[in-house]
Amino acid sequence: MTDPERDAFDVRPTADEMLARLRDDSGTVPGARGRLRIYLGMAPGVGKTFRMLEEGHRRVARGTDLVVGFAEDHGRPHTTELLAGLEVVPRRRIEYRGVVVEEMDTDAVLRRHPTVALIDELAHTNVPGSPRAKRWEDVELIRDAGIHVVTTMNVQHLETLADAVATITGAPVNERLPDGVIDVADEIELVDMTPHALRQRMRHGNVYPPDRAQVALDRFFTESNLTALREISLRLVARRVEGQMEDRLIGRLVPLVSEQVLVLVDGGPASARAVRRAASLASRLHGGLIAVVAETPDMAGEPFDRRRDRQEALDDAVDLGAEVIRVETTDVVDALEYVVRARGATHVVLAHAEQPALRRLTQRPLVDRIVTRMPDVEVHVVGTGSRP
C-alpha cells in the first residue's frame, strides 16, 4: 500500500486511487462493476429525486432487488410519498460539533448487497468524521461491489463548470464533483424543465417553504440564471451524445454484428405501443434499442398532456433497455436520418399520427419521406390499437 498511514487491513481505495481508476478503467474486469445512471438537472426542484424514486418503484414492480441508500425529500410531500413502499437503508448518525448529522451508511448498503441502490445527491460532501469525504467516493465503493447505482446531481456541481456557474449566478459552488465521475457513467438522463415552469413550482411551494421561496426567486432562481443553467445542461448532454456518436461512427469501419431498432417517441396516442413494439422487435433480433425525440420548435407550444405522454413513453423505453437520444431540429426526418446513419439503425418504428386533411394536401406523410430518404431501412408503423 502506498500510504503507510492507512490501516493494513483496509483495502478500500483512496479518493486519488478512485480518480485514477476513473481515468483508466482498463484494469477492471468487464461487467464486474455496477452500472451508474445519473439523473442530471439544471437546478434544485426540477424533479430529479422524484424521477429516481419513480424508477425505483418501476424496478421493484418488476421484481428487482432494490434499496434506497439515501434519498432527501426536502420536505416535499410528493417526494415523501414515493419513499413509501421502498426499502430504505437506515442512515449512519455522526456527531459533529455537538450536532448529530445523518449520512448514508455505505457499509450497511454493502452488507445488504441489493441489485440496485438509489443514492441521491452524488456531489454531496459528507460530514467530517465520515469514512470518506465525498458521496461519489461511497458510490464508487458500492459499484466496486457489483451493485448498480441510480443517482442525481445538478450541473453546477461539475468541477469544470462550477466557476462559470458561480460567475453567472453570483452564488459560490462549494460542493464539486470530478468530471471523470460522469464521464464514465453508463447513462445520463437530463431532467428538464423550462425556467418559467420551475419558478412556478417555487411560487406554489413545491420546492421550498413559502418563507424561503421568494428569497430564492429573487436571487438564485431568476429567469436569466435558470436560462443559462438550462443551456449549460443541454450542451453538456448534447456533447456526450455527440461523443458517443463519433465513437460509434469510428466503429462503423467494422461490419455491424447486430441490428439496431430506432423508435421515434413523439407523445402521440400510439407512442407507448410503438415503444413496446420496438422493444419486442429488438429483443427478437438480439439488437439494440434507441428511443429518439426530435425536439422541434413546434414543441414549445405543446399541451401538457402530450408532454406528459411523451415522457411516460420515454420512461417505458428506458425501462425496456433503450438509450434515449434527443436531437434539436427543424425537421423530424433530418433528425431520424442523422441518428440512423450515426448508429447504423436497421429498423425504424413510428407511431401512426392522423394528419389533418389540409396538411395531407401540402405535406407528404412522414413514412413516405423516411422511405425515400432511407430506402435501406425497414420502417414499421404502429397504430393506436383502437378504432376511431
What's this, in brief?
With 388 residues, the chain is α/β, with parallel strands linked by helices.
Topology:
Elements: H1 15-23, E1 36-41, H2 48-61, E2 66-70, H3 77-83, E3 92-96, E4 99-103, H4 106-112, E5 116-119, H5 135-144, E6 148-154, H6 159-169, H7 179-183, E7 187-191, H8 195-203, H9 210-218, H10 223-251, E8 260-264, H11 271-285, E9 288-295, H12 304-319, E10 323-328, H13 332-343, E11 347-351, H14 357-362, H15 366-373, E12 378-382
Parallel strand pairs: 1-6, 1-7, 2-5, 5-6, 8-9, 8-11, 9-10, 11-12
Antiparallel strand pairs: 3-4
Helix pairs in contact: 2-3, 11-12, 13-15
Task: Report on the architecture of this protein.
- Residues 1-11, 25-30 and 250-257 have low confidence and may be disordered.
- This protein is α/β, with parallel strands linked by helices and 388 residues long.
- It contains 15 helices and twelve strands.
- The chain has a five-stranded parallel β-sheet with strand order 2-5-6-1-7, sandwiched between helices.
- The protein starts with 14 loop residues before the first helix and ends in a 6-residue tail after the last strand.
- It is globular and about 70 Å long.
- Helix content is 43%, strand content 17%.
- It has two domains: 15-243, Rossmann fold, CATH 3.40.50; 257-382, HUPs (Rossmann fold), CATH 3.40.50.620.
